[in-house]
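Today's session is about reading a structure prediction critically. Students often jump straight to the picture, but the first step is always the sequence itself: look for stretches that repeat, for charged clusters, for runs of hydrophobic residues. Only then move on to the predicted structure, which in these notes is written as discrete structure tokens rather than atom positions. Here is the chain we will use throughout the hour.
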Amino acid sequence: MGVLLRLTNIKVLEPINPRVPVEEQYYTCRLRPWTIDEEYSRWFRMLRYYRSFCAWFSRTILGHDDTFSLYIWQINYWLTPHKDLATGRIIPGMLDWMNSDSKSFLQRFPFPSVKRHRSGGFFRRCARCFSSGVTFQGPNTFMDGFSWRRYRFAQDYMQMFIEQQNRFLELRQSGKVAATDILKATKTMDLSKALFLATIFNRKITFVNEETGQTITDYHYQSNQHSDNSPYFRNFDDKDWQLVCLWWQGMMHYLHQTYPKVFKVQKVKGSKKPVNPLLLYARTTATLEKYLHSTAMDIEREPYSTILQQLEDITRRNEETEALNRKMRSQSRKK
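Below is the predicted structure for this chain, in token form.
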């Protein structure tokens, strides 16, 4: 429901009245005077004041009523698949593409840019009134420009968030946990979320172009930005985070289709211990150093798609070699 309202730009003014029959229950709503894309524009604060003033003037001075009723049955009709009476085909719900078994995935990042303020104490909150915030640029389509190091960081922090979220749900369901443990788990989950966002969002910095040697000021990735910029992404909005997770899910589906050998789903025995991400990263880097005759630093700077393609080729050659060895052993046994 929250994602639907976020994507359709609808603001709920009054909740439903549970005392009336279900078919008569509705939300009193109003369209926001700005869009999602405009929220992250450079001049959004001035635009928001201007649009809000125009909307207030239209409602209060001119007497225009821009509210509307959004009935429960309408929401159910939009979100539930139904059969077209004319053609007979099944029309999916508006948000069916969010289901894990759907063939449609979000592959374009929903936030081209965001403006964030650094989290902190009382004085930092007061400073926000006089600061427009820091603008961060979101990742390109298909994570174009991501290095292997940046991709691995993002993947590890997302895995960390999933593990912390599962632990948080277990604590809530147990019912015998102190409030301090719940608070600690919530902060840890928020930190892993902030580290992931700080990894995929770039801040405008001054750096030296390695190819030309020129000093440039632009949105650029640096290896320590996950720790330096994570305070800006604390307390990230949950509805926006859901869209980010949907985008990441779409990217993982795309990579699974592009590199099926690398992202092959394998069964894990219950007694098998989970692999340490740092250990797995070290093993992968050592394998690439052996096959590509490159240093670890060169591998980290390579585009992530290049490394995944190399791993795909290595895995395919190993499987072909193993198949050939099995065939030769079976032939030798027959003799």
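Discussion point for the tutorial: Strands lie at 10-14, 26-31, 68-71, 82-83, 90-91, 113-116, 134-137, 202-208, 215-220.
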